[in-house]
Specification:
It is a single chain. This protein is mainly β and 319 residues long. Helix content is 0%, strand content 53%. A 4-stranded antiparallel β-sheet has the order 1-28-27-26, with no helix packed on it. β3 and β4 form a beta hairpin. It is globular.
Length: 319
């Protein structure tokens, strides 16, 4: 199926996935080595796609499908994933509704392996590989965060939380720190070696999502009861900015690659908003039907989400 549109349009690209069902989660690779790969999670499968940006057009090729035995809730691509060398090396993790994490490895030639990680005993909200591929972090409604070493995916650390873990974030500038955000509203940074918290942020309101700006380790975004907070870690006592973006609680946030725009989605409001964090100006506000989480391309100003059964991209620039 050929689908393309001009990058100068506000709505860049739409692809229908109704034959697979509702899009539950997406993950655009944050790593240059696999920058044009995307994972799309459904009820019983994950699709690996490759984006092609040529001559001001955008196309999507489906490279592979992977069967799931449980509903997808979170996705993460390993930094070792690459299709630019042979054999291909595809590694990704899927958090599933049955309280398990599944780690897939594939060469895209039929040699697929799935490792099942079973230490959580409640819903897993997020999984993330660190940029050096030493650990996979997972956070759960069982009030724990776990670190799995990536050689054989044994659980090597369990962090006891005060409430359900909602988000896990790493930063390429300092892999010794792990950000864990809790539903109660607490954001903690842990020293990975000692497993001790070294910094805490607390706004006193329930939290639905957190993201660490990939271009600047001093900035964190959180979505708390409809408020978009931007934290400056050099002055962590109070948020640097506070913007009411939704009237309902819940949702997902993600910085773009350049750290100047934050995309926020709220299922109850059925709205995607992109905010310039320097001016608090809303650069994009569009209605959606039933959105998944939101993602950005790691090089281009493209924001993406699954809208019910449709994958949609928009081009959003800060100037």
């Amino acid at each position: 199926m050929e689908i393309a549109s001009h990058l100068n349009d506000s709505k860049v690209f739409k692809k229908d996935f109704s034959e697979y069902g509702q899009i539950l989660n997406i993950e655009l690779s944050p790593f240059i080595l696999s920058q044009d790969l995307i994972l799309i999670g459904f009820e019983s499968r994950v699709i690996l796609g490759h984006l092609r940006l040529e001559d001001q057009t955008l196309d999507l090729d489906i490279l592979a499908e992977f069967t799931l035995k449980s509903r997808c809730s979170s996705l993460s691509i390993s930094p070792e994933t690459s299709t630019s060398i042979l054999p291909n090396n595809i590694i990704f993790a899927v958090a599933c509704k049955d309280f398990k994490v599944r780690v897939f490895r594939s060469d895209l030639r039929g040699d697929d392996v799935c490792k099942v990680l079973s230490d959580h005993n409640s819903y897993i909200n997020d999984v993330k590989f660190d940029p050096d591929n030493n650990f996979l972090a997972s956070v759960s409604d069982d009030n724990t965060a776990k670190l799995w070493e990536t050689e054989d995916f044994k659980c090597v650390v369990t962090l006891q939380l005060t409430s359900p873990g909602i988000s896990a974030c790493w930063h390429k500038e300092d892999n010794s720190k792990l950000l864990i955000a809790e539903k109660i509203g607490l954001i903690r940074f842990y020293n990975v070696e000692t497993q001790n918290p070294i910094l805490s942020l607390d706004y006193g309101k329930p939290l639905s999502c957190t993201h660490w700006a990939p271009s600047d380790s001093q900035f964190v975004a959180s979505l708390q009861l409809g408020e978009l907070l931007i934290w400056d870690l050099s002055k962590p006592c109070v948020p640097a900015t506070n913007t009411l973006v939704f009237t309902e609680a819940g949702g997902h946030v993600r910085f773009n690659a350049f750290g100047d725009l934050v995309a926020a989605i709220n299922n109850l409001d059925s709205t995607l908003k992109v905010v310039d964090i320097r001016t608090n100006q809303v650069k994009l506000a569009v209605s959606v039907v039933l959105p998944s989480n939101v993602n950005w391309h790691c090089r281009y100003p493209l924001v993406c989400l699954g809208d019910y059964m449709t994958l949609t991209f928009w081009k959003v620039v800060s100037k």
